[in-house]
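Practice problem 4.
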């Protein structure tokens, strides 16, 4: 996130301009600078010298909200990497991720506190008593602080304290104040991180941090790294990047999208998603404003885009699908302000592309991104009209090549394994090794590159994606080289399934679909193909198209096609397969049993 020196620079140039909007809360650049400085000072008080000798890391479990934006900027100011965690992952995986990261600070909103508590209880290598816990909500039944009632005293605009005012927990509810406040009230010296009696870890609620004295001088940043959690896989993995790469990546993003201080950016994807956080940091750095949404509700999103005059947005695929079918989604296109909508594009198909163009205008950018590669490829609105799904061109500063079985760089048109180089690519994993190779793409390799020239030898990350480059340098994903479940390790079948799903995503008669291979006692070795019809009453067309495509691409595996109302996505654009199967397999099993019963009755 943006550091305080950049915030102060904008506050000097435009003190009253809006920096962050979250519902009724509107922070000017002056408010933002003051809040970040106070929180940075408060966090410094809570970090004893012995903690600073080792890497100090923070994690957060929260949706987009202004308190989180302030704390992320405070952590960036102190050089503390703050890594977002997906609260939807299972407890065991979250616990192992906490053990791997070894955080000193945990930032959590009230709705995700039970998830954190369960994970900490299951994390044998994490001692809760060594963690500084920062609840975003005050320790009371009420949630976000508002005005003087939440501040416990004089409050400035948006409920932020006036300089020198103290923020306390609301006393009307009988909530106990924090230990730090009790020390101050009794005139005792504060003990950084002293827990409440009976508490398992030190607690310093966000309102208390916001009440810290403004810093006279902030300490030098502790460490220079950024971390991101990789979703999926058999074990948690965390990517590491040095902070020096952030500057070049920021420049490339500004050049790619034309961001400037006049942009108003809607954050409609969780900030634990690396691309969402990177875009938010970029917009703040150039002086744009952030509008935060933690609902994902289509009506709220449409209203925010119109009311706040939003120009750019990062939106998760599920929320985008809901927005496109909502009657109010055409209003932003009529207003003419919205110019850029970015969303992960690995599973989005023809219906999404066409409907976004019709309702929002030519604004949808499909991003091919992962925690390891960062933003590697992009499909612009114009390109998506004439190009198949899962295709993109390398973004500025990035080079994509295709490698053969022996690691050689292949020419255009030859399929192989994708390797990517550029400022967005990770330096490595926190605990584990990745495959890097030093390569010279050469002028005849057909490398997908936005450099416009031969880049010479560069360090490439060899990914698990299979793909092919065309003569224009665009790459198309064709499958996965690793991370495939045991049931589908046959490379030929896996490639056929990937091509089948790509074919289905390009069908205009479907709103959305997925292809999942299962091996179950009730269904056997089969494909489960749920789909959403483009409209009520159009399911028959979808059935016919899907059955024909499945029989053509994968004739050896029976396909069970079923119409559904919803296909669950993670904010990173991955289909939540387990949740999807839990919903559809019982229905398919029942239908299969009914068919068998009818067949037996007819035979009898």
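Answer key:
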């Amino acid at each position: 996130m943006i550091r305080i020196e950049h915030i102060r620079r904008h506050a000097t140039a435009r003190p009253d301009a809006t920096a962050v909007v979250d519902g009724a809360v509107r922070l000017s650049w002056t408010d933002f600078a003051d809040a970040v400085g106070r929180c940075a000072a408060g966090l410094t008080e809570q970090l004893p010298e012995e903690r600073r000798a080792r890497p100090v890391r923070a994690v957060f479990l929260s949706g987009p909200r202004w308190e989180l934006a302030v704390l992320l900027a405070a952590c960036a100011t102190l050089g503390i990497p703050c890594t977002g965690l997906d609260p939807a992952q299972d407890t065991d995986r979250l616990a192992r991720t906490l053990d791997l990261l070894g955080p000193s600070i945990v930032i959590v909103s009230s709705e995700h506190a039970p998830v954190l508590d369960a994970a900490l209880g299951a994390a044998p290598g994490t001692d809760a008593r060594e963690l500084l816990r920062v609840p975003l909500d005050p320790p009371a039944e009420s949630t976000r602080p508002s005005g003087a009632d939440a501040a416990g005293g004089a409050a400035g605009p948006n409920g932020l304290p006036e300089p020198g005012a103290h923020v306390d927990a609301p006393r009307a509810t009988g909530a106990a104040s924090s230990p730090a406040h009790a020390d101050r009230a009794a005139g005792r010296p504060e003990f950084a991180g002293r827990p409440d009696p009976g508490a398992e870890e030190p607690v310093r609620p966000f309102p208390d941090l916001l009440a810290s004295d403004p810093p006279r001088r902030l300490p030098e940043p502790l460490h220079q790294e950024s971390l991101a959690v990789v979703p999926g896989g058999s074990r948690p993995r965390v990517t590491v990047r040095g902070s020096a790469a952030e500057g070049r990546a920021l420049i490339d993003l500004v050049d790619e999208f034309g961001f400037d201080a006049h942009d108003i950016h809607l954050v409609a994807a969780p900030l634990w998603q690396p691309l969402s956080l990177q875009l938010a940091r970029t917009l703040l750095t150039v002086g744009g404003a952030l509008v935060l949404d933690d609902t994902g509700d289509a009506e709220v999103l449409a209203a925010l885009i119109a009311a706040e005059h939003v120009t750019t947005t990062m939106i998760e695929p599920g929320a985008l699908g809901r927005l496109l079918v909502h009657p109010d989604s055409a209003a932003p296109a009529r207003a003419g302000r919205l110019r850029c909508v970015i969303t992960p594009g690995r599973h989005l198909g023809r219906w999404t592309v066409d409907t976004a163009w019709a309702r929002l205008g030519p604004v949808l950018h499909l991003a091919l991104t992962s925690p390891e590669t960062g933003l590697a490829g992009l499909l612009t609105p114009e390109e998506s009209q004439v190009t198949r799904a899962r295709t993109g061109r390398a973004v500025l500063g990035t080079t994509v090549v295709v490698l053969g079985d022996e690691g050689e760089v292949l020419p255009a048109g030859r399929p192989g394994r994708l390797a990517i180089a550029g400022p967005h690519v990770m330096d490595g994993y926190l605990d584990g090794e990745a495959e890097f190779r030093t390569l010279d793409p050469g002028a005849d390799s057909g490398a997908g590159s936005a450099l416009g020239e031969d880049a010479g030898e560069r360090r490439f990350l060899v990914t698990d994606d299979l793909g092919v480059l065309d003569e224009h340098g665009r790459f198309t994903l064709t499958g996965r080289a690793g991370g495939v479940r045991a049931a589908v390790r046959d490379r030929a079948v896996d490639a056929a399934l990937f091509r089948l799903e790509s074919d289905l995503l390009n069908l205009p008669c479907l709103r959305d679909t997925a292809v999942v291979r299962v091996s179950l006692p009730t269904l056997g070795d089969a494909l489960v193909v749920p789909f959403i019809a483009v409209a009520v009453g159009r399911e028959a067309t979808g059935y016919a198209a899907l059955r024909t495509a499945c029989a053509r691409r994968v004739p050896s595996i029976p396909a069970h096609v079923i119409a559904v109302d919803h296909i669950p996505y993670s904010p990173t654009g991955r289909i939540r397969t387990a949740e999807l199967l839990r919903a559809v397999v019982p229905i398919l099993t029942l239908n299969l049993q009914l068919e068998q019963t009818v067949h037996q009755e007819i035979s009898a």
